[in-house]
Amino acid sequence: MKLFRFGPIGQEKPGIQTADGKNLDCSDFGEDWNESFFANEGLYRLRHWLVDHQNSLPEVPKNARIGSPIARPSKIICIGLNYRKHAEEAGMEVPEVPIIFMKATSSLSGPYDPIFIPKNSKQTDWEVELAVIIGKRAKYVSVEDAMDYVAGYAVHNDVSERDFQLRHGGQWVKGKSADNFAPLGPYLVTGDEIADPHNLRLWLKLNGKILQDSNTSDLIFDIPTIVSHLSQYMTLLPGDVISTGTPSGVGMGLKPEPRYLEHGDVVELGIEGLGSSRQVAMNDPEA
Q1: Which of 81, 113, 124, 188 has its CA 20 to 30 A from that of 176?
Q2: Protein fold of 70-283
Q3: Structure confidence at residue 204 (pLDDT)
Q4: E strand spans, the chain
């Protein structure tokens, strides 16, 4: 299944996209795509509900805003330097264990919402990433069992302010958490639709020019390793988002000199089988 959410910010409704590309309003199912939904076997229940109700569901208006495919989760967890060439372009050593950092959940936004360049920003950057959405509570999970806890996958732009991240002291979270720094979607694609999440092309364009073009086969730490590792240190809750890292081609690593987002820049990104998203960079209207 492909799940999405639509409507004004804070008033999103649940929807699904059918095999023939129709976007259907699932409001009559009575639940949002949130922690409670996943925790209570929502995907199983939804699949069976659709057998009887799909043909009667209204289509979503063509001009409807598309929001994040899941409601605000308890956590957005990111893995740093998880592609070898990205570590090299950042001038950092390839990690021996997964590098973990968090994004504030308030940074979550829709796949076509603008990227807000924060006040005092000098180096707002882009990162296409495969996001993993957790389907059930995970604690002390083995590598062998880890994929049983995955609900599905989504496209994520781990927008990053490098000056905040690397030169303002403390942890990376400061450079990762501004409003609209986590465009997610357009869809949560359930795991049964993705034959091999470790063999998906992922790409990103800036103003029409391809800057990132890689494959999840290049991940240093694969999804089972990441899920198992995280679950040793924190309880993963249904709906939690794990962003698995970005390949080379971010603005910070461009030669002969870095390139960062400016007002009016257009970022497009996608992952094979998961769809694509598009964001226009703009100065934060509240700055």
Answers
A1: 188
A2: Fumarylacetoacetate hydrolase; domain 2 (3.90.850)
A3: 98
A4: 2-6, 13-17, 23-25, 66-67, 76-80, 99-103, 108-109, 115-117, 124-125, 128-134, 150-157, 160-161, 182-183, 188-190, 201-206, 209-215, 241-243, 266-271, 275-283
- Residue 130 pairs with which residues in a beta bridge? 155
Check whether 80 has a pLDDT greater than 90: yes
CA distance 224 to 247: 19
The per-residue pLDDT for range 92-141, each reduced to its tens digit, is 888 999 999 999 999 999 999 999 999 999 999 999 999 999 999 999 99
Nearest-angstrom CA–CA distance, 89 and 198: 22
Query: Where along the chain do its domains lie?
Result: 2-56, 70-283
The tokens describing 18, both together, are 């059918």
Per-residue confidence band for 89, with pLDDT thresholds at 50, 70 and 90: confident
| Nearest CA among 218, 216, 209, 214 for reference residue 268 | 209
Q: Is 11 helix (H, G, I), strand (E, B) or coil?
A: coil
